Amino acid sequence: MSKFTSRIAWPLLGLWMFGFAVDYCRVKLQGEPVFCSVQEEGTYVCSGYSYRVYKHPVTGRNEYTLELFGEEVVCTLTN
User: Fold this and answer.
1) pLDDT tens digit string along 15-68?
2) Which residues does 29 contact at the CB level (< 8 Å), separation at least 6?
3) Mapping DSSP to helix (H, G, I), strand (E, B) and coil, where does residue 49 land?
4) Burial level of 44, CB count in 10 A (0-12/13-18/19+)?
5) 50: Cβ–Cβ under 8 A, 6 or more apart, which residues?
6) For labeling, which of 29, 32, 41, 54 is most exposed (least CB within 10 Å)?
7) Whole-number pLDDT of residue 1
8) How far apart are CA 45 and CA 38, in angstroms?
9) Nearest residue to 53 (alpha-carbon basis) of 16, 79, 26, 15
10) pLDDT of residue 73
11) Could you tell me which residues are beta bridge partners of residue 68?
């Protein structure tokens, strides 16, 4: 990898990781990410990852699924 490419790739990767970390913490705590766009109610999509957020009907807690590059990584849904 040339120096020019690495000077661009590493900061972009760092920004993506920062956005992912902020969104993950925000969904976990408040149920709504910052850097994602809304596809439909409860479905948030960003570059490389997406969330589906549901409110549990009994407890009222936010439950979510996280998909990273199309594969489900985290699922906190209960029956």
Assistant:
1) 999 999 999 999 988 888 999 999 888 899 999 999 999 988 888 888 999 999
2) none
3) strand
4) buried
5) 36, 39, 43, 44, 66, 67
6) 41
7) 63
8) 6
9) 26
10) 95
11) 49, 71
The number of beta carbons lying within 10 Å of the beta carbon of residue 77 is: 10
Residue 4 clears pLDDT 80, i.e. is over it:
no
- What's the token pair of residue 62? 């936010």
Six-digit token pair at 33?
A: 């990410």
User: What local confidence, expressed as pLDDT, does residue 78 receive?
Assistant: 85
pLDDT of residue 3: 84
Per the CB < 8 A criterion, the answer to whether 20 and 12 are in contact is: no
Token pair 């705590």 in the structure block, residue: 29
* Identity of the residue numbered 9: A
Distance from CA of residue 42 to its chain's centroid?
Answer: 12
